[in-house]
């Protein structure tokens, strides 16, 4: 009898343990990740920063504690400890900033290690300026006043008129749109019209803070009328087939490499950089009749702490050396009409 009692208690305990284990699994599947979370198994170089420290102009880098996808701050470069030139530049050419800064430091060696720059979307950079040049990311808050602001010519002129920047706006290069796709083009995208097809998943710049979204809508309208622009930026957003970026088009290649999207419209220079970096990314050219060209410009910030260096940087962006760097990524020198 005692033996039977022990056996029954053992069976009961095992049954309760199984039940609690089942409850634990059920609860896990209901929390946050839907039960699909797993330990990271990715290749770290797929996640930014992609230039292996080249985009950090600080001389004394101290302890390197970069964890891809977790702690990386890829849009903030250099040291905020008393910089002598601070540049706020729209993220459209974050990849070109390392060689540009290197060339500028070679011309002005006294600035080596004293340049700080941010490559957030132009609209977010303006918001940072309007919040007293202060930004918070996670648990860290810092304030740094820019000397130079660089973005599309239209936006630079807009903020000169608002009094945030001092004129004139100085244009230097142009850029065209392209369709970025995963290498091999598994969704068989051929043109802008294909982006409106049901089932084609897209990663697109967010109109809330990225000026390129306006230019993309113009190209979609040229290629397929207002219906195509509405399908990509309205219908597909609502049904989940279009992901709008939270930062800027740095996210599009990430989403493509993670299999979350089939295509996305970006500037051609960004696709060229991804291909040069060896990532499994390619692009489809958009015909000139459907394409939209951006003109990039810069201006000195009103009340810049370092106006001389600011003007030197603005002038440098038009120099033969700077234009050579830009052309490496597919930009074209600006030519006034």
Architecture overview:
With about 325 residues, this protein is α+β, with helices and mostly antiparallel strands. The chain is about 35% helix and about 20% strand. The protein contains nine helices and 13 strands. The chain has helices at about 1-30, 95-105, 120-130, 155-160, 210-240, 250-255, 270-275, 305-315, 320-330; strands at about 75, 85-90, 115-120, 135, 140-145, 150, 165-180, 200-205, 240-245, 265, 280-285, 295-300, 330-335. Strands 1, 2, 3, 6, 7, 10, 11, 12 and 13 form a nine-stranded mixed β-sheet that branches. Helix 2 (about 95-105) runs antiparallel to helix 9 (about 320-330). The chain starts with a helix and ends with a strand. The model is unreliable at about 1-35 (pLDDT under 50).
Low-confidence stretches: 1-33
> How many H/I helices?
9
Mean pLDDT: 85
| Radius of gyration over all CA atoms, rounded | 25 Å
What order do the SSEs take from the amino end to the carboxyl end, as H and E? HEEHEHEEEHEEHEHEHEEHHE
Short summary:
This protein is 37% helix and 20% strand. It is built from 9 helices and 13 strands.
Note the topology:
Layout: H1 2-30, E1 76-77, E2 85-89, H2 94-107, E3 115-118, H3 122-130, E4 134-137, E5 140-143, E6 148-152, H4 153-161, E7 165-182, E8 202-204, H5 212-239, E9 242-244, H6 251-257, E10 264-267, H7 268-276, E11 281-285, E12 293-301, H8 307-316, H9 320-328, E13 332-333
Parallel strand pairs: 2-3, 2-6, 8-9
Antiparallel strand pairs: 1-3, 4-5, 6-12, 7-10, 7-11, 7-12, 7-13
Helix pairs in contact: 2-9
């Amino acid at each position: 009898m005692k033996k039977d009692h022990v056996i029954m208690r053992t069976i009961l305990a095992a049954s309760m343990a199984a039940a609690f284990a089942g409850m634990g699994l059920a609860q896990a599947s209901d929390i946050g990740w839907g039960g699909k979370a797993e330990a990271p198994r990715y290749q770290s170089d797929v996640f930014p920063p992609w230039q292996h420290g080249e985009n950090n102009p600080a001389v004394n880098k101290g302890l390197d504690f970069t964890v891809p996808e977790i702690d990386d701050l890829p849009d903030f470069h250099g040291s905020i400890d008393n910089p002598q030139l601070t540049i706020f530049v729209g993220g459209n050419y974050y990849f070109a900033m390392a060689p540009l800064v290197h060339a500028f430091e070679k011309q002005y060696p006294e600035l080596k290690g004293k340049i700080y720059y941010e490559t957030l979307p132009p609209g977010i950079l303006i918001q940072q300026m309007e919040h007293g040049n202060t930004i918070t990311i996670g648990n860290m808050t810092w304030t740094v006043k820019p000397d130079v602001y660089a973005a599309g010519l239209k936006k630079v002129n807009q903020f000169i008129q608002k009094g945030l920047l001092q004129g004139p706006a100085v244009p230097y290069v142009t850029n065209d749109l392209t369709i970025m796709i995963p290498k091999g083009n598994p969704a068989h995208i051929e043109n802008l019209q294909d982006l409106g097809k049901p089932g084609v998943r897209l990663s697109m710049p967010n109109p809330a803070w990225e000026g390129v979204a306006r230019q993309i809508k113009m190209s979609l309208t040229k290629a397929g009328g207002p219906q195509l622009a509405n399908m990509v930026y309205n219908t597909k957003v609502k049904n989940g087939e279009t992901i709008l970026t939270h930062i800027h088009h740095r996210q599009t290649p990430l989403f493509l490499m993670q299999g979350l999207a089939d295509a996305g419209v970006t500037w051609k220079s960004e696709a060229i950089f991804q291909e040069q970096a060896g990532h499994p990314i390619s692009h489809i050219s958009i015909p000139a009749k459907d394409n939209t060209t951006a003109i990039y410009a810069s201006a000195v910030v009103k009340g810049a702490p370092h106006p001389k260096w600011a003007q030197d940087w603005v002038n440098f962006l038009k120099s033969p050396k700077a234009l050579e760097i830009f052309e490496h990524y597919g930009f074209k020198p600006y030519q006034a009409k």
